[in-house]
Design a protein that fits this description.
706 residues, alpha+beta, Beta-galactosidase, Chain A, domain 5, Immunoglobulin-like, globular
């Protein structure tokens, strides 16, 4: 089975012009991108607008309301006589190509667009039927927030620059250049004519100062040698889809699965500038300044990307944390007088603190500001960065990656080591003066999610320390903390024993999903947990019912899977969730941008193949009467796993070992022996409910029941 067979079935259609304008911070139209350059389509059949985004185009300053991502501006194409034309735009997910068809009774126009996967270039091919069409294209550069702008024409190219060099901490700048491939048909004012026998292709390139000193010249150079650009674009996307894929015989959920992965493939690849909260920036004044909100919003789009084998899209997540380490250490020394790092709620790229001096962020926010930083009395913003780093490490065991993140992991572990207090009476460590929610009291103690994130941090630090042979002298202290760290509290609500949000302070919250985030994404409760803990976890899911939460669906669904909740209920709610998404995959009526693009892929992957904490489970939370298959889901131990479920029987199991780690598998055929094939050759037979076998790096393991 190839991914093309599945993904090529899915197209998403926009049958009305997007409501979005360049002044809106929401995005509900067609979206194109390559993980660095992004284009949001807006406008009508009469006026086509391509809002131009670049992941590294920010205004950067350590000050609230002086730092945010911004668009460069927009490319507009205005064809004469199409004011009354119908509107239909279709996106083909497999080729990442967008086609707009605009029809009149006796004429039509088609625009075929893509942002090249291998170059920062937008291509728009325009064809017409019925009659010739006069059109004009123009590039408008946004000038707000103190931007320095330039526009001009050089020979057959039009160009524009948007830059920030005054009253900023780090200068930025991006250039856009456009022309027609048919240069001789381009007028002085950007006018051109399209005839039925002669389509035209408009190309626009973008480059930034972070990639080229002379970024305008680099953008102009990108417009040359375009003969293989479409072929390279489609080849990249074909490879992207082949990295892992699923077949679940549910077209609604399956389409949202691939549409979500299309979104992340389109907006996340720049290794030092991950996408901001909206992915595509369409205004100079995005909600929440469009920054990296660290108390879940920045992390959520990346949930499960490592397990989906999209490492190139997963890795940009880490850059803001690594770049902020020095400033986090400064905050920690000034606030607490000890080593480690404390992270505010909002940061930007390159170590910028977007929420610094944010006393007017919201009303009554002043109590949440410490040392000039907006912390909301939450001590976990840095630790939250580990929820994606940990699975990325454990599913690859990539030593280079381990070395890259270890300084940050160490900083967080040292913070907890110094911040925790010792309760002599209870012989345990406490997390005090730590709010579980924005706006909850700063006197709260032992938040359930803080305890889980602390445990995650120290466990990851120990594993990396031993693997990399670093800081061995710290391991004993970390182990002591793990062995004596407080456990989460429980309470009785509506006749059920459920998790309590804190041991002292807030017991419950009417929305959001903090109450189950120790399960996911913190990863401290799973199917190997104590049965009583699992019972409490299921009770909490029952009581919360936050499947369609404004903030927390992206953690609620995978948390339900991790504890073995009813798979039929999960799939029912996931279908409702998928049906509530707009054509571009974003949840309708939810202004939180790309954070929900993880929900469906992550949930489905966990249901089909749970590879957490050294144990692989195949179809562990999946209806046994529902056929399904998957290819190349990553599991702990640096394994990629493929399998199918047909007529209630698991088959076609292939496990590829990248690092030669021992593999532990829950027997998919209870009560039967497992025949092991190594690189296609019959090897040993295994018995038991759970089996462990050795592997070699690069080895392919096949498993059959006997």
């Amino acid at each position: 089975m190839k991914s093309k067979t599945i993904v090529s079935k899915y197209r998403t259609e926009f049958t009305a012009p997007p409501k979005m304008t360049p002044q809106d911070s929401s995005v509900d139209g067609p979206l194109l991108g390559n993980g660095d350059m992004g284009v949001a389509m807006a406008g009508t059949a009469k006026e086509h607008h391509f809002i131009l985004c670049k992941n590294d185009l920010w205004r950067l300053a350590h000050e609230y309301d002086k730092s945010c991502p911004v668009p460069l501006g927009q490319l507009s194409i205005l064809p004469d006589g199409f004011a009354r034309a119908s509107y239909r735009v279709t996106q083909d997910l497999y080729t990442a190509t967008t086609s707009g068809v605009f029809e009149l009774p006796k004429a039509s126009m088609t625009m075929t667009c893509y942002v090249a996967a291998t170059r920062n270039l937008l291509s728009v091919e325009i064809a017409v039927t019925g009659r010739a069409v006069n059109a004009r294209a123009s590039l408008t550069v946004a000038g707000g927030r103190g931007a320095e702008t330039q526009t001009g024409r050089t020979d057959s190219t039009f160009w524009g620059i948007r830059a920030f060099s005054m009253d900023v901490g780090i200068p930025t700048g991006t250039a856009a250049v456009w022309t027609l491939c048919e240069e001789d048909r381009l007028g002085a004012d950007g006018a051109f004519v399209v005839t039925p026998d002669k389509p035209v292709t408009l190309v626009l390139a973008m480059e930034s100062v972070f990639q080229h000193d002379d970024y305008l010249a680099a953008a102009k150079a990108s417009l040359k040698d375009l003969s293989t650009i479409r072929q390279a674009h489609e080849a990249w996307w074909a490879d992207y889809w082949e990295k892992s894929f699923v077949s679940i015989d549910d077209p609604v959920i399956e389409k949202q699965y691939y549409l979500s992965l299309y979104g992340m493939g389109s907006c996340s690849r720049n290794p030092t500038f991950p996408p901001s909260i909206f992915g595509w920036v369409t205004t100079d004044n995005p909600l929440w300044l469009g920054d990296y909100h660290l108390n879940y919003n920045h992390q959520a789009p990346f949930y499960g990307l490592a397990r989906a084998n999209r490492l190139e899209q997963a890795d940009p997540h880490d850059a803001p944390f690594l770049d902020f380490m020095e400033r986090a250490a400064w905050h920690c020394r000034e606030m607490y007088g000890h080593e480690g790092g404390i992270y505010p709620v909002g940061i930007g790229p390159k170590g910028i603190e977007t929420t610094y001096n944010a006393e007017n962020y919201f009303e009554d926010v002043s109590d949440c500001v410490e040392h000039g930083g907006l912390f909301y009395s939450q001590r976990t913003n840095g630790s939250y960065g580990l929820v994606n780093m940990a699975p990325r490490w454990y599913t690859t065991l990539d030593l280079d990656y381990g070395r890259k993140i270890y300084p940050f992991v160490l900083q967080i572990a040292v913070f907890w080591q110094n911040y925790l207090t010792w309760d002599e009476a209870g012989k345990r460590y406490l997390i005090e003066n730590d709010s579980c929610h924005e706006g909850s009291p700063n006197t709260e103690m032992n938040s359930c999610v803080s305890l889980a994130l602390c445990r995650l941090a120290l466990t990851l630090a120990l594993d990396l320390s031993r693997t990399l042979e670093e800081d061995a002298e710290r391991c004993e202290a970390w182990e002591h903390i793990l062995n004596h760290l407080s456990i989460g509290s429980v309470q009785e609500r509506e006749g059920k024993t459920v998790f309590r949000y804190t041991e002292r302070g807030r017991g419950w919250w009417k929305n959001n999903t903090i109450g189950i985030q120790q399960i996911y994404p913190a990863g401290q409760v799973d199917l190997d947990s104590d049965p009583e803990l699992l019972r409490v976890a299921k009770n909490t899911i029952d009581l919360m019912q936050r499947w369609h939460d404004f903030n927390g669906s992206n953690s609620f669904f995978p948390a339900a899977v991790r504890i073995g909740y009813d798979p039929a209920r999960i799939l029912h709610e996931l279908r409702v969730y998928a049906e509530h998404a707009g054509p571009n995959g974003f949840q309708q009526g939810n202004p939180h941008g790309i954070e929900n693009l993880s929900t469906v892929p992550n949930t489905i992957n966990e249901m089909l193949c749970m590879g957490h904490n050294e144990v692989i489970r195949l179809f562990p939370v999946w209806p046994k009467d529902k056929d399904a298959s998957f290819v190349n889901i990553r599991c702990w131990g640096a394994f990629t796993v493929s399998a199918a479920l047909a007529d209630g029987v698991v088959r076609d199991i292939v496990i590829r070992s990248e690092k030669g780690h021992d593999c532990t598998l829950v027997n998919p055929w209870p009560g039967k022996s497992i025949a092991l094939l190594r690189n296609g050759i019959a090897a040993e037979n295994l018995d038991g409910d759970r089996v462990t076998f050795s592997t070699s790096a690069g080895e392919t393991i096949g498993l059959k029941n006997t």
